[in-house]
Amino acid sequence: MKIKSFGEIEFINRIKNRLQMRNNAFTLLELLVVIVIVGLLAAMLVPALGRARENARRAQCASNLRQIGIAWYLYLDEHDGWFPDFGDPARATEFGGKGIDETDALPLNPYLDVYSAEDKAALEVFHCPSDRGETGYGESYFDTAGTSYMANLYLMGGVGLSAETLSSITAPYSKLWLTEELSGRFHGPENNQRMNVLFLDGHVKIHNFYADWNSGEVLTDPTP
Fold it and tell me: I need a labelling partner for 94 at 20 to 30 A (CA). Which of 35, 108, 178, 214 fits?
């Protein structure tokens, strides 16, 4: 067996190193495949993450409405079952929140420990996380009206009727809406977005505005 020279050994080692480097390195095609796979995964994950965030916002909104529902019953208990008399449809958001000038005068605020328009922590119960600049003025309903929710004016004399009492209501409490999320009602394809609704019996559920109102699953009139 012929002994290789030092030069031959060095040449062979270089060839081996190059082959090893080539085997360990990605080719351009392999890199492109990896990039495509990462892009596809991102395309699938981003919508899922977006839905998860929106579900979390909806859950917080529902929690807000449940607290508002408790406040409504405390108010009614102290006012012999009478709802506040608004007398003006423009006051549909003035049942509670930071208001314009009269935070301490809004009916539900004392029952939710809201006494000042500067108390941001306490006011969060009136702020739906999904309410994000949809009024047409680049501001949220919370920013413009002091709350992300509106009250059923048929109960509060805001549609030419007098305010109602609990004892006068003949509609099922489980179908008569009391307070609803504003951000889902006036926006989206054909005004058909879903929104959280608080009912007179205290339960909260997501509803489709037109479909569920038209079907009678959700009622506005307390004495149909």
Answer: 214
Is 161 part of any domain? yes
Task: Name residue 93's amino acid.
Answer: T
> Percent of the chain beyond pLDDT 70?
73
Number of domains in the chain: 1
At 164, which amino acid appears? E
Task: Look at residue 140 and tell me if it is in a domain.
Answer: yes
Pick from 175, 117, 176: nearest CA to 147: 117
Q: Phi and psi (nearest 5°) for 119?
A: -85, 80
Is the pLDDT higher at 104 or at 154?
154
Q: Which domain holds residue 200?
A: 65-214
- The answer for residues whose C-beta is within 8 angstroms of residue 38's C-beta and 6 or more apart is none
pLDDT in tens, 140-165: 889 888 999 999 999 988 877 777 89
Element (H, E) at 194: strand 194-199
Is residue 208 included in any domain, yes or no? yes
Tokens (6 digits) for 112? 């939710």
DSSP state of 88: S
pLDDT for the residue 24: 53
* Position 108 in a domain: yes
Using a 10 angstrom Cβ sphere, with 0-12 exposed, 13-18 middle and 19 or more buried, the burial of residue 66 is middle
Rounded to 5 degrees, φ, ψ at 8 are -65, -40
